[in-house]
Amino acid sequence: MSKNESGSFEKESQKKTLGVSVKDVESLLSVSVEDNVFEAEHNLERGLKQRHIQMLSLVGVFGTGLFLSSGKTLALCGNVGMVLSYLFIGILVGLNQLAMIELSCLMPVTGSYIRHGEHFVDRAFSFALGWICVYQQILPSEIAATSVVMGYWSDLNPAVWVTVFSVIIIGCNSYRIRFYGEIEFFFGVLKILLISGLIIVSAVMDLGGVANVDRIGFRYWKQTPFREYYTDGGLGKFLSWWKAAGSVVYAFGGVNSISFYAGETQKPRHSIYTAGKRIFFRVFTLYLLTVFGLTLILPADHPKIANTTGDSTGSPFVIAIQDAGIKVLPDIINAIVLTSAFSAANLSLFKTSRDLFALAAKGQAPKMFIKTNRFGLPYWGVIIAALFMPLAYMSTSSSASTVFGWFQNLTSSNLLITWISIDVNHIALQKALKAQGYSRDDLPYKMPFADYGAWISLAFFILLLLTGGYSNFLKGNFDISSFFSAYFVIPLYAVLFFGWKIFKKTSIRKSSEVDLQSLFKDVEENPEEIPHQTYLWE
């Protein structure tokens, strides 16, 4: 970590080498920071504390992708293949988030990477990304997921559960941000308990600690380590693993929510850094241990999950524990999985309203989305997001889990676009720092591997996006819904980007012209007192 200690940047000599003095630059920036980059943030209420941010990041990481759709991943690529797929995507996402956190600590604004794109790359880049994010969050995949989970207990029409949970979620997003933070904090505690419990239960089951159940050990790793699809042999195993890796993207969907709350957080830079630096630990401990445990206690050819359409009901963890004959526990776990789906749906509505706020702050969406009520709530964004919730009623006319699968595939492609954009933003920051005589050491917080990590994750995310629907190009495997969900986002992004670029005549920002001075000035004028470390939630 590199922290600016004083109000002076000591960059006078470096600026002169560029032929421009600090005073000249400051005169060009006669508009104050508050009236420029951070102006819109004053409309929001800073009601979130550091404990909220840390727990909200946890809520974002551990969602239905882990608890619900992991069964499909296991069936697709096998027990060993599943662990490798989560490890692979986890590393890429971790590198991507290091880049995002470093940039967000310099420019902590609501909408984070959307606003970063406008500031560092191109206004058209920001416009396209922002509306892609709205499209991504407005898809009610998590509401559909609640119908899948509720199907474990009830044969009621999924429309009942869609209605019930939609009303509750709208209510949670219609009051102060502090109220939202406390609700998600509660769900975060439940998720920690769930994850810890699943790891312990998996270990007990695997080691033969359950009555009338033999010790499993690594039996299923030997039985179904990898699975073959589309062709035989090593190529078939690789193709199935690569497809599974693409589906794992959905499981990490909420990880980039850490910096999204910047405009509504107390001490945003320190809070984002503190929460963000724990990403690797969470991914490689709780997350991977949970996946590892699942692969030990459930074979990839289990009849309830061994398909590629995602039509199994409930969580694979529940299925494994139920098969072991453990009473009551499956119902408890499924209930907590339900809260996870609800929490993720709650986050989606929240992010949609803030996406629209971020776009409106730069004139890329109607100004009504920047309006807030007396609680600092951008209410128009909440209303518009709520209007799209009825899309989840599609699960009433088709299998709820099938609809969930459609939404999941669409969301995965959108996530890849978002992560690619985050990497591009950070690369643009690196170039701007170099062009203007700064270095990453001048940033308020410096994350390890963020510079190289942005390039590495960018390359793989582009590859995953382009090959996400590769199975449709194999003979006899074309499916219009699969092809659409895998590739629709690419032409949509192109239309948004070039359409706005032509309409507004925007241009890509030169590295030497990126406004770094106002960002460093805000760091200097708004120092954050770092709280004393404590082992208690504050």
Short note summarizing the structure:
By secondary structure, the chain is an all-alpha fold. 61% of the residues lie in helices and 0% in strands. It has one domain: Amino acid/polyamine transporter I, CATH 1.20.1740.10.
Question: Outline, from the CA principal axes?
Answer: globular
Class inferred from helices and paired strands = mainly alpha
Helix fraction bin? 55-70%
Average residue-wise pLDDT: 81
Strand content: under 5%
Largest sheet: none
CATH C-level label? Mainly Alpha
Oligomeric organization of the protein chains: single chain
How many extended strands? 0
Uncertain runs with pLDDT below 50, 5 residues or more?
1-35, 307-312
Sketch the topology as an H/E string, one letter per element. HHHHHHHHHHHHHHHHHHHHHHH
Q: Counting H and I runs of at least 4 residues, what is the number of helices?
A: 23
Q: Which CATH architecture?
A: Up-down Bundle
- Radius of gyration, whole Å: 23 Å
> What is the first-to-last residue Cα distance?
23 Å
CATH level-four homologous superfamily name? Amino acid/polyamine transporter I
| CATH fold-type name | Amino acid/polyamine transporter I
**Total discrete domains:** 1
